């Protein structure tokens, strides 16, 4: 028997039972995520808010040398106040906008006629045939209803955040006691540190970029006199957390409202060209420059994660798709059996430790 034949005989084969068990476990996880959405979504939001608070408090300590407890209080106050204001603006105007959406639907035919001279009859016919069939009131209820539901869960999220912050320092000690093995405890702590650093960078940078985009867009909306300018600015801020399609939606809705509200097509063009250009420049230049390759996620994986989490958790899942997938990628990279999967999920095949070693060399 040749050496090659020996290698073939001793090479482990993928057993049908392993595939079966993997499919069963994956199915149960997906069903659990779907069935437990009411419990898991506030918890996931609280963990993400907690990461943002930690990032902000650490920055306050680094800049001002303030005590840790004071920085934590400042971080909690700023983040929760900002989150409450976002939810309040969306929730308070949700009912009013849903009631007035029928008025916009009645004015839609006149808006389509104004587009005819700009794009031609063929494109206008396509717009009329496809957009008229869309139930705009349903779309408004879905988008703004999610924000209202989140407003109702704000106090639950705040409660989670309070306890997470209270146990921030004691958590590492509990990890060491629970692991028992110092090596396992160190490995688990390393994994949590990698997750925390990646999430802090992502949430911090995306929050800053979304705030800049929303501020510029709000200035444009107010200068044009667009109705519900605050709502569209807040939605612009929130939708920028949704990869790829979020910026498109953030321009589409205020542009459609401007097309219906105003007698001329100029405000519509200003929003499409002005805000669309801002979204393009920020999304393709500022965002990659500030985030860099720290997330190291495949572009296809980003779209796949967006589709999966939106299917499982709806609109909130779209917001959480990238952070949740980053956590999964980092966890897989620290499990030897799942490390090949993490390599396939990454952008360039290098994981966190590989990038660190390459930078050191």
TrEMBL record:
It is found in: Membrane. It is a multi-pass membrane protein. The chain crosses the membrane at residues 23-56, 68-90, 138-163, 202-221, 233-259, 265-286, 298-316, 322-342. This is AI-2E family transporter. The lineage of its organism: Bacteria, Pseudomonadati, Pseudomonadota, Alphaproteobacteria, Rhodobacterales. Belongs to the autoinducer-2 exporter (AI-2E) (TC 2.A.86) family. It comes from Ruegeria atlantica. Keywords: Membrane, Transmembrane, Transmembrane helix. Signal peptide: none annotated. It comes from the Bacteria. InterPro entries: AI-2E-like.
